[in-house]
Amino acid sequence: MDTQHLWSQIQPPPLAQPIPQGLGSFSSPGEREFPRLALSQLTLMRMPFEEAVLNFRSEGFRSIGLWRPRLADFGEDRAAILLQDAGMSVSSLSFAGGFTGSHGYRYTEAIHDGFDALKQAAIVGAETVVLVAGGLNGHITKHARRNVVDGIRTLSERAEQLGVQLALRPMRKTFHHTWSFLNTCDETIGILDQIQCPNVGLAIDLYHCGLESDWKKSLRTIAPHTSLVFVNDLPCPNSTEYEMCLPGDGILPVRAILEEFVIGGFEGKFEVHVWSEKLWELPSRRLFANVRESLARVWPAAWGHWARQFRNDSPA
User: Fold this and answer.
1) Residues 6 or more apart from 171 whose CB is under 8 A from it?
2) 31: how many CB neighbours lie within 10 A of its CB?
3) pTM metric for this prediction
4) Which of 215, 262, 227, 248 is nearest to 26 (CA)?
5) Backbone angles phi, psi at 89, to 5 degrees
6) pLDDT (tens digit per residue) in 231-290
């Protein structure tokens, strides 16, 4: 797995006008609108930066989640111009954090890296910088929690100045000693309660959180704390590999989860974010087709409405 920087041909339809905030509705009480979709650069890891932006745009996505190593390689200023010309917004920038030293950074280095991430986010107009706490790394839990709380408070001050949201991402227990000792939504909300900063929320990743007990019961409580939802699926319950799959291709009740988030008042982006060696092997045409088919399965009413709207838009 490439951990640089800590984390470290299709037939396009006509370009379309920007899509309104709501993308359609689903049949449920209240008929809430489906928030805008975003697609993560990590889902198409091997596609060059410029090609990814233009292909995302031609496929109808108006928002992209960026990965810091790819952004740094391409150049933040060049990326900002490309994204502006393509009419693309940036839903997220991943990742920063690692306040416990489990990635080889000392605490102060992790803070400075976080400042670098915020600067990158401000240049490209990213709405959210996604944070991971870091593995336990020999710390007692109390000390690890203090590092995370103090680190995020420090970053939140700079983030507020730049108009950037921070989102802390819990991860599965498998990654307790390597990537994040925060393994449940409740643990992570406990950290947010200590931080008490309005520009710090949750980044919920279905792969990491979708098997939590009482998940559906707690979704509407979690939704108001959530800044970003990573949409993907879990291939099997006991998987030890870091291999995600497209929503609807695994074992999670993805459609029910997304609906509960919207009913609970979540107003942020749903970002299709799939780390998958298998997916990256596919030709780009097939990969995009798989993404479309996946979204049509997990939320047919909303996706169908969005697709019809996209096809009927006038060329830009």
Assistant:
1) 132, 179, 180, 182, 183, 205, 208
2) 9
3) 0.84
4) 262
5) -95, 165
6) 999 998 776 678 999 999 999 999 988 888 888 889 899 999 999 999 999 999 999 999
